[in-house]
Design brief:
Blueprint: E1 11-16, H1 27-32, H2 38-57, E2 79-86, E3 89-96, E4 102-109, H3 118-121, H4 124-136, H5 142-161, E5 170-174, E6 179-184, E7 190-191, E8 194-195, E9 198-206, E10 209-216
Antiparallel strand pairs: 1-3, 2-3, 4-10, 5-6, 6-9, 7-8, 9-10
Length: about 220
C-alpha cells in the first residue's frame, strides 16, 4: 500500500493484522516499552520488524531502532526512513540518504475523525476544501486523510529541522487524484541549497485504510 506512493529507490515493508507482533526486540528496544500496554508493545515490535527487513533489503545489518528527540526513530548512518502503525497495519520505508533527503509516511484506519477533533487539525481554508472534496468523492473520509497528510508532513519535516511543526503551520490542499501539496506557513528547511516552501505528497485508500507519503528530493 505504501510502496505505490514512493519512488523506486525507497524500500518498503508492510505487515497486516498481527504479523510480526511477536518478533523479539533487542534489549535496548524492549526497555523502551517495558511499561507499555500489550497493544503498544505489539505495534512497537511489528513496525521494527518491518524496518529491519527493509534494512536487509538495502544491505544494512539489522540493528536496534531507538528513539531520538521527540520520539523520532534513530536510523543507521546513511539511511533516511519513516514508520507508521495503526490498528491492523504497520509499515516502514527506508532509503539511502544519497537518493532521498527525507521521508514521511502515515497510515490510518479509514474512518472519520472523532467528533470535535477536526478544528484542532484543520485551518479554516482546509475545512472549506474538505467540504467540496466530500461532494466530489463521498467514499473518502477526507478529515482523516487530512490528519494523515499532516502526520506525513511532520515526519518528513522533523529530521531536516529538529523542530516541532504544529498542525496549523502547514496548509494542505488535497486532490481527488491521489496527490496533495502542503504549503509551509513557517520558514521551511534547506534542501539541496534551496529553502523549501512546500512539500508534495501522495495518498491512497483501500483495505479499510488510508495512507499518505512524502519523499523529499535533494534538488
Amino acid at each position: 500500500m505504501i510502496e505505490e506512493l514512493l519512488p523506486d529507490a525507497v524500500v518498503t515493508v508492510e505487515a497486516y493484522g498481527h504479523e510480526d507482533a511477536d518478533t523479539p526486540l533487542y534489549p535496548e528496544e524492549a526497555a523502551l516499552v517495558a511499561r507499555a500496554v500489550a497493544k503498544r508493545r505489539r505495534e512497537f515490535a511489528a513496525v521494527r520488524s518491518c524496518a529491519r527487513r527493509a534494512m536487509e533489503k538495502l544491505g544494512v545489518p539489522p540493528q536496534p531502532i531507538l528513539l531520538g528527540e521527540r520520539g523520532a526513530p534513530r536510523w543507521p548512518a546513511g539511511l533516511a526512513g519513516s514508520m507508521t502503525h495503526c490498528d491492523g497495519y504497520c509499515a516502514a520505508a527506508l532509503v539511502r540518504t544519497g537518493a532521498i533527503a527525507s521521508l514521511g509516511i502515515d497510515a490510518e484506519v479509514h474512518e472519520s475523525l472523532p467528533e470535535g477533533v477536526l478544528p484542532s487539525v484543520a485551518l479554516p481554508a482546509e475545512a472549506d476544501r474538505l467540504r467540496g472534496l466530500t461532494v466530489e468523492r463521498p467514499d473518502i473520509h477526507w478529515d482523516r486523510l487530512l490528519f494523515s497528510a499532516k502526520e506525513s508532513v511532520y515526519k518528513a519535516w522533523f529530521p531536516l529541522t529538529g523542530k516541532w511543526l504544529d498542525f496549523m503551520e502547514a496548509d494542505i490542499e488535497l486532490t481527488a487524484d491521489g496527490t496533495f501539496r502542503a504549503a509551509l506557513l513557517v520558514p521551511g528547511p534547506w534542501v539541496g541549497g534551496r529553502r523549501l516552501n512546500h512539500f508534495d505528497g501522495r495518498w491512497t485508500a483501500g483495505r479499510g485504510l488510508i495512507a499518505t507519503a512524502i519523499a523529499l528530493q535533494h534538488g
